[in-house]
């Protein structure tokens, strides 16, 4: 069992993330008295810890009593709905806590808990349950795999690896990663948003957004596949990038300077002929605030350029300024991009 408060990246999870993990652990072993004792010690640390648990327990209660409510309480990321803090219903929270600890039958509700976590706590908790390695906002980390290959994970990124005697498989669950693969006779396959990248020994970048998966080859050779039967295939040469739209499989290939591949590792975002909306999505991974572009026409404009990820607000202004866009700080936790 994972210990709440510890993380492989060496970074401390937020209190709200810890509360969500306590819920998942208590759901798994509701009669574990030592777990309950440690939970009570965690909850008693501060008013913030108690408030985080109240929100978590109230969400659990709402899930059972009114399943449709979590759509109202948890606006989709990327919409222009303001994120409103949920007011905890303390009576409900106490009943939810008693239910989690005292009714073993709730341990069977794993699907409901997973849905609650996905909708309310966002990708962070769900990725923590699936991923072998992950990063948070503005964090870049290098990971050495069991075969000696290395992966540089971009911000808000996560991978899961499965190695055996005959194959090496990596799933990019979110974000972007640069792979430097050592050839050892076994195929090395990266899956990202329905796209497969097959290699033997090479260095390449894989980037996922909500609309597409991009693969850029630095050296070696890779073959990409897409579709239900993986019948749509393309082989890349060094200095090529391919973008595959997940909705329809449309492919766009272009040349790219080797030095411009995965420049995010040095804090620079290089894009060519990308929509403003997709670039905002990439900058979001380096910004602590939520960013929304309500103007779909502005979001659809295409841009090429290099943006400084260490200064995300400045990058946003440089991105939308030439098209009459303005970055408005609605609050420290919200940026709204509109036309002037």
Structure description:
The protein is of the alpha+beta class and 340 residues long. It folds into 3 domains: 15-129, no CATH class; 131-263, Jelly Rolls; 267-340, Phage tail protein beta-alpha-beta fold (3-Layer(bab) Sandwich). The protein is built from 10 helices and 19 strands. Helix 1 crosses helix 3 (47-65), helix 6 packs across helix 7 and helix 8 (276-284) runs antiparallel to helix 10 (312-320). The longest helix has 19 residues, at 47-65. It starts with 14 loop residues before the first helix and ends with a strand.
Element layout with pairings:
Layout: H1 15-28, H2 33-43, H3 47-65, H4 69-73, H5 90-102, H6 110-121, H7 123-130, E1 133-134, E2 141-144, E3 150-153, E4 158-163, E5 168-174, E6 176-180, E7 188-192, E8 195-199, E9 203-208, E10 212-219, E11 222-226, E12 232-236, E13 240-245, E14 251-255, E15 268-275, H8 276-284, E16 290-292, H9 296-299, E17 302-308, H10 312-320, E18 325-331, E19 334-339
Parallel strand pairs: 5-7, 16-19
Antiparallel strand pairs: 1-4, 2-3, 3-6, 4-5, 6-9, 7-8, 8-11, 9-10, 10-13, 11-12, 13-14, 15-17, 18-19
Characteristics:
single chain; 340 residues; alpha+beta; Jelly Rolls; Phage tail protein beta-alpha-beta fold; 10 helices; globular
Structure, briefly:
With 340 residues, the chain is α+β, with helices and mostly antiparallel strands. Helix content is 31%, strand content 31%.
Q: Calculate the mean pLDDT score and round it.
A: 78
CATH topology of the largest domain: Jelly Rolls
Helix/sheet category? alpha+beta
Cα-atom Rg, whole angstroms? 22 Å
Residues in helix, %:
25-40%
Using the coordinates above, name the CATH class of the largest domain: Mainly Beta
- How would you describe the shape? globular
CATH architecture of the largest domain: Sandwich
Query: Uncertain segments of ≥5 residues (pLDDT<50)?
Result: 6-11, 62-122
Number of strands: 19
Query: Number of domains in the coordinates?
Result: 3
Secondary structure tally, helices: 10
Physical arrangement of strands within the biggest beta sheet: 1-4-5-7-8-11-12
Q: What is the CA-CA span between the terminal residues?
A: 52 Å
| Main pleated sheet | 7 strands, mixed
Proportion of beta-strand residues = 25-35%
Q: Could you give the order of the helices and strands?
A: HHHHHHHEEEEEEEEEEEEEEEHEHEHEE
Instruction: Please state the oligomeric state of the protein chains shown.
Output: single chain
């Amino acid at each position: 069992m994972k210990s709440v408060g510890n993380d492989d990246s060496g970074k401390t999870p937020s209190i709200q993330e810890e509360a969500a993990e306590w819920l998942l652990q208590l759901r798994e072993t509701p009669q574990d008295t030592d777990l309950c004792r440690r939970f009570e010690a965690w909850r008693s640390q501060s008013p913030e810890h108690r408030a985080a648990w109240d929100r978590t327990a109230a969400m659990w209660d709402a899930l059972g009593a009114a399943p449709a409510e979590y759509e109202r309480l948890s606006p989709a990321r990327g919409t222009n709905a303001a994120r409103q803090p949920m007011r905890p219903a303390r009576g409900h929270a106490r009943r939810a806590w008693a239910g989690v600890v005292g009714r073993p039958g709730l341990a069977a509700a794993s699907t409901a808990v997973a849905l609650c976590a996905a909708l309310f706590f966002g990708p962070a908790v769900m990725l923590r349950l699936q991923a072998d390695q992950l990063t948070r906002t503005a964090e870049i980390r290098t990971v050495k795999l069991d075969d000696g290959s290395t992966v540089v994970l971009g911000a808000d990124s996560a991978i899961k690896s499965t190695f055996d005697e005959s194959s090496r498989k990596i799933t990019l669950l979110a974000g972007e990663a640069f792979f430097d693969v050592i050839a050892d006779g076994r195929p090395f396959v990266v899956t990202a948003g329905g796209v497969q990248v097959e290699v033997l020994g090479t260095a390449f970048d894989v980037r996922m957004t909500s609309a597409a998966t991009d693969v850029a080859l630095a050296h070696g050779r890779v073959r990409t596949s897409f579709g239900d039967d993986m019948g749509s295939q393309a082989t890349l040469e060094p200095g090529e990038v391919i973008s595959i739209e997940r909705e329809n499989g449309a492919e766009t290939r272009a040349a790219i300077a080797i030095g411009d591949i995965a420049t995010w590792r040095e804090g620079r975002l290089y894009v060519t002929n990308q929509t403003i909306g997709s670039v905002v999505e990439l900058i979001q991974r380096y910004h602590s605030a939520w960013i929304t572009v309500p103007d779909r026409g502005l979001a659809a404009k295409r841009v090429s350029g290099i943006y400084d990820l260490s200064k995300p607000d400045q990058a946003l202004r440089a991105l939308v300024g030439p098209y009459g866009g303005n970055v408005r700080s609605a609050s420290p936790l919200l940026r709204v991009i509109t036309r002037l």
